[in-house]
Amino acid sequence: MGMSMGMRMTRRPLQRASAVFRRESSAGFSRRAAPSYVLGIETSCDDTAVAVVDTDGNVLSNVISSQWELNAQWKGIVPALAARAHAENLPPVLEAALKESGLSSVRDLAAIAVTSGPGLSPCLGVGLETAQRLAIEHNVDFVQINHLEAHVLVARLPTYELLGNTLDDSVGEAFDKVARLLDLDSKHGMHGGRLIEECATRGNERAFLFPEPMKHRRDCDFSYSGLKTAMLREVQQLGQLDESIKSDLCASFQLAVRASGDETALAIR
To answer: What is the pLDDT of residues 142-158, one digit of tens each?
Structure first.
């Protein structure tokens, strides 16, 4: 199977998995006392990844297809395009991961785990649909994984508390959209955040006064839709943008985002 244009498939070095395995059999799927192999699918953002591990913590395969060239072309991640790339790349990545693991087929698995969130909805849907279909076809357990909880498990933290969440966009998505809005020159496959950061070094962060998101709230939630709208209105009013104005806009936008982070830190205290 071919990979879509602009995608690059890599294999990560194999190592022991530090995640804690927890069985969560779903109704309608077979139950096994001690699963031997688990396949994981990750499509929450712009990397298509599939790995096979065993319950002794050994990583048997770990194959990743990146979208760096596609992201560079669009100055960040476009969810619909990223989802389309996942749909094209997941079959060959899945095939490569199974082959590298030494398993003969999906039927050799005890369970299929897939990222169910947080992430970009169109991208998550590709992985979820594929995992569920394979689990039903091959009669193996289907497990949905919150990948932030997975980070906690990897660190072996016994418990955690969710302090805040985005009410709309993630900060990375906001940076990507602003980079596209300003038509920043995408060099070396940089994401929107890196482009804005680089451009901001040449600008005056006090040149434009953007609203500080969630300034008057004392919780840890965050929101960036209003800040993006403020940037859009500023660009529309300015009309023609030279490099100096773009630098000032980037620096001022970055300051507003940083102020939002400072407010969240104060709320945590």
So the answer is: 999 998 888 888 777 66
